[in-house]
Specification:
The protein is α/β, with parallel strands linked by helices and 176 residues long. Helices cover 31% and strands 29% of the residues. The protein contains 6 helices and 13 strands. Strand 10 and strand 11 form a beta hairpin. The longest helix is centred in the N-terminal third of the chain and has 12 residues. It is globular, with a radius of gyration of 20 Å.
């Protein structure tokens, strides 16, 4: 990727969830200087198993803790919950959070938290991001590359392979 005579590339990763965190970790492992730009003011992590006063917490692929273990190991029970309850759980508990193995790489990176992207300019060599925080204070960040790891909203109208009946059913769930 780079040799010792070249500067390490800088990459701004925009996002505050697992995809953004994994990208930052991968970039750092490959030798790039990764910077995380996120609207959220705090990063949320799924935690590893840890010893507590009353013993070990169970482990799952979603992280440590009884809830994560339940959601992973009892998917059919979760499926039997009312739809609104499932959606609330996904938003509140299983929402955007990074996996704990990426944490050390992300937290060692420059973090631009509480920042809203307001615009970007490319001068042929570098990208300048125009940011503002929750108080409206503006700043800029100049970088070699930008990766948008911002998630997405489902637009069922673009899924031409789905029938109108299926689109109508899921439009209610996704509030489209």
């Amino acid at each position: 990727m780079t040799d010792s005579t070249q500067a390490r590339p800088t990459v701004a990763v925009i996002g505050g969830g697992s995809s953004a965190f994994d990208i930052v970790a991968s970039l750092r492992k490959s030798g790039a200087t990764a910077r995380l730009v996120a609207r959220r003011t705090q990063l949320k992590w799924n935690m590893p198993v840890e010893k507590r006063q009353w013993g070990w917490t169970p482990s799952s692929g979603l992280g440590g803790g009884w809830r994560n273990c339940f959601f992973e190991r009892a998917p059919m029970v979760f499926r039997c919950l009312p739809q609104d309850a499932r959606l609330q759980i996904v938003r509140r508990w299983l929402g955007p959070a990074g996996g704990w193995p990426s944490r050390k790489y992300v937290e060692q990176s420059p973090l631009f938290l509480g920042q809203q992207l307001r615009g970007a300019e490319y001068d042929g060599a570098k990208v300048t991001l125009h940011l503002s925080n929750h108080s409206g204070i503006r700043s800029t960040l100049t970088t070699d590359h930008v990766i948008a790891a911002t998630g997405y909203k489902v637009d069922l109208r673009r899924a031409e392979f789905l029938s109108d009946e299926i689109k109508a059913k899921y439009a209610r769930i996704f509030k489209v």
